[in-house]
Amino acid sequence: MVKKFATWLSRRSRIILFVALLLLIPSAAGYFATGVNYDILSYLPKDVRSVQGENLLEEPFGAAATSMMIVENMPAKYSDDLLNQIKKVDHVSNAFWLNNIVGIQIPTEILPADISDSFNSGGNTMMIIQFDKPPASKETMQSVASIKKLMNKNCFMAGMSSMIEDTREVIDAELPKYIGVAVLLTLAVLLLSFESWIIPFLFLGCIGMAIIYNMGTNLFLGRISYITKAIAAILQLAVTMDYSIFLYRRYEEERAHFEDNRDAMAEAIAAAFTSLSGSSLTTIAGFLALCFMRFTLGKDMGIVMAKGVIIGVICVILVLPSFILIFNKQIDKYQHRKLFPDFTKMNSDMIRHRYLYLIIFFVCLIPAIYSQAHAPVYYKMDQSLPKTLNSIQANEKMKSDFNMSTEHFIVLDGSLDNAAMSKMEDQISDVKGVEKVFSYHKLLGKGIPDFFVPDKLRNVFKSGNYQLLIVTSDYEVASDDVKTQLSELQTVINEYDPTAYFTGEAAMTEDLIAISNNDFNVTNYISIALIFLIEAIVFQSFGIPVVLILAIELAIFINEGIPYFTDTSVPFIAPTIISAVQLGATVDYAILMTSRFHEEIRNGKTVKEAAIIAGKTSDPSIITSSLTMFCATLGVTIISNMAIVKEICNMLARGALISAVITMFIVPSLLCILEPIIRRTTRRWNGKTLKENRLEKAAKKEVPVQTETSGPVA
After folding, report:
1. Phi and psi at residue 225, in whole multiples of 5°?
2. DSSP assignment letter at 130
3. CA 704 to the chain's CA centroid
4. Secondary structure class of 3 (helix, strand, coil)
């Protein structure tokens, strides 16, 4: 069936390529129509209390997002004019500062002192701007962009919405550079790895089409995260290049047996189909493991990348053969000498010292596990942004000029009376690190009648059956201090309203920390289980999956443990992504090595001979594959100003090399030493069943070997 289909494909190269090129048009349209989500916190589960509290800010308060603007050393008239212009921007639900906080009928001098101080600091004035859509929504992004056009150089806009808009600008500006550098570096590796000057360009053309198809079909998701958008193309290029290499190498082998290149390609497709399907399953499993995260950014990336691998395999089977057959003359014409050395001596030396490499394996394992478990991570999103951005500068000014590092939003029962509110506010003010407390009750103080307050301002703090309490804090988001502070505030609030909702960046980040710690373990266990199952089925073995996964897990532990020794914090999502992706993508190196080792054992080679042959034949492919992944992700590491993208790609690049080194130097020794165990736990390891091996072994023990002087056996 596969052979017939492959033959049919090989006779229709031009038609297939024409259809493939036509499909790029709707795919490109789908790419541009797919939305991008720049808010990491929006991927928290909907059943989390902080997320439910944020939803209440949107409805009924109409304040789904809040930003603060600092106007530095400008006259009051400028601030008034700016405020009036901001109010006219679409989806701005409210905007106010001290001079209009309660209307012209009430002098600002009779406002409570801490309220007045909260809006003025030296020559700086603070405005509060609220939006009726969530921080990362398209509408809010457009509103923030419009407001920034109204600002001059003395205006600084702080808050999640402003930070998200800055993130969008950075990613949109850098993404073409990521792709360009990744393609150039990958091309350099391929030109050195292959004897043809043409084939690398065909590989990149095929994978480039697969990337466009993948990104275009993301339209059904509605929108994807900016992290997925930034690295999906790079990852797809890195992890699917192996499939192109495998098919082409097989085609080169088959050409020696066929006069017609089309027949050779049909045979290569048929032979490669099963191998490509099996090899890609481990990578797909690694990405699908991310879908089990409660923090749904993992699902976002997992679906996109698993789909990308599937599309990559399809393109290698359908499109790449058409490219090769059409440009076959050019491939043969433009050749250069082989650049890879012979790896026979290196592998012979390794097998001779195999027990030394086994000792190295175990010596590295313990510190790698410890360092991986204790590597520092960070959860504060603005830590990943360039310090020159307007939103980051505004956040710094909020800290230095207004003693506001973060804001907690607390949604309370609207029926709480003034006496309870007054007592609760006093207790909140006594909590360490609390700077200011804003509420409708606090705003009125003792001298402003309720009917004097404009409805527009009243609706900021009271709406429906709820009222809003805003607490400003000296403490940084995701710090131990703010965690303790939130716990103490929760204790105070529960005395008066046990059903209250805590939200805001700090509260949502604390929920994120708790969820992501659990997600890391869940994702890690699921990816290991899925890949173990796939390898067990492919090799019909229990021992082989254990050996291969242990080897790649060591590479992962080393990779994730390096920040511990360098005292470098990495973004919280990076270890979770790396543990699944590095295992799924680079275990193929070990599978390639083991498959050849198994093949040579079945061909009658000794264990040592099989290990040497497996090493020397697999090393060039492993080097090419790992360098492709290294170079594709290294380019992003070098040029990106987004720390979260930079660190993920840095770890992917480093992980590819570490996995390659472990596979080339440790796996052959493990296979050689553990072959007796593998043989006993693998069905038909040397071409015979376990039962046949046992009977053969028993027969050899029972029947003595005849010598020249011995008589016939009775």
Report:
1. -75, 155
2. E
3. 63
4. helix
Please say if the pLDDT value at position 560 is more than 60. yes
Q: Which of 346-350, 393-397, 501-505 has the lowest mean pLDDT?
A: 393-397
CATH number of the domain where residue 527 is located? 1.20.1640.10
Q: Report residue 227: phi and psi, to 5°.
A: -70, -45
404: phi then psi, degrees, rounded to nearest 5: -120, 105
In a shared domain, residues 331 and 347: no
Same domain, 366 and 512: yes
Give the HSE-up count for residue 302: Cα atoms under 13 Å, Cβ half-sphere.
23
| Residue 663, CA atoms < 13 Å, CB-side half-sphere | 36
Long-range CB contacts (< 8 A, 24+ apart) of 110-119? 110/445, 110/447, 110/448, 111/443, 111/445, 111/448, 112/442, 112/443, 112/445, 114/436, 114/437, 115/436, 115/438, 115/442, 115/443, 115/445, 117/436, 118/402, 118/436, 118/438, 118/472
Q: Same structural domain for residues 499 and 443?
A: yes
Q: Where are the alpha helices (DSSP H) in 327-353?
A: 328-333, 344-352
Q: What is the pLDDT of residue 704?
A: 53
Asked if residue 182 belongs to a domain, the reply is no
C-alpha 384/C-alpha 649 separation (Å) is: 14
- The answer on 597 and 635 residing in a single domain is yes
Residues 149 and 91 occupy one common structural domain: yes
Reduced 3-state DSSP string for 59-90: CCCCCCEEEEEEEECCCHHHHHHHHHHHHCCC
Helix (H, G, I), strand (E, B) or coil at 598: helix
Q: Rounded to 5 degrees, what are φ and ψ at 407?
A: -125, 135
Query: Across residues 410-423, what is the average pLDDT?
Result: 88
Segment holding 156, helix H or strand E? strand 155-158
Indicate whether 427 belongs to any domain: yes
Tell me which residue range forms the domain holding 312: 1-33+194-339
Confidence of residue 698 (pLDDT cuts 50, 70, 90): low
Percent of the chain with pLDDT over 90: 36
Residue ending a domain, among 459, 482, 503, is: 503
Regarding whether 249 and 367 lie in a shared domain, the answer is no
How buried is 199 (Cβ within 10 angstroms: 0-12 exposed, 13-18 middle, 19+ buried)? buried
Rg (CA), the chain: 32
End of a domain among 503, 535, 565? 503
Q: Note the pLDDT of residue 686.
A: 74
Residue type (1 letter), 475: Y
90-111: pLDDT as tens digits? 998 888 776 555 554 444 554 5
Q: Are residues 332 and 348 in the same domain?
A: no
pLDDT tens-place string over residues 154-173:
899 988 888 888 888 888 88
Helices of type H across 403-479 = 418-430, 440-444, 455-461
Q: To which H or E segment does residue 37 belong?
A: strand 35-37
Pairing of strands 377-378, 570-571: parallel
Strands 406-413 and 92-96: unpaired
Q: Tell me, what's the pLDDT at 311?
A: 95
What's the structural domain count of the chain?
3
Asked if residue 558 belongs to a domain, the reply is yes
In a domain? residue 707: no
Range 562-588 average pLDDT: 89
Measured from the Cβ of residue 600, the count of other Cβ atoms closer than 10 Å reads: 19
Task: Tell me the two tokens of residue 432.
Answer: 């360490």
**N-to-C CA span, the chain:** 54
- Residue 615 and residue 544 share a domain: yes
At 231, list the tokens: 């690295």
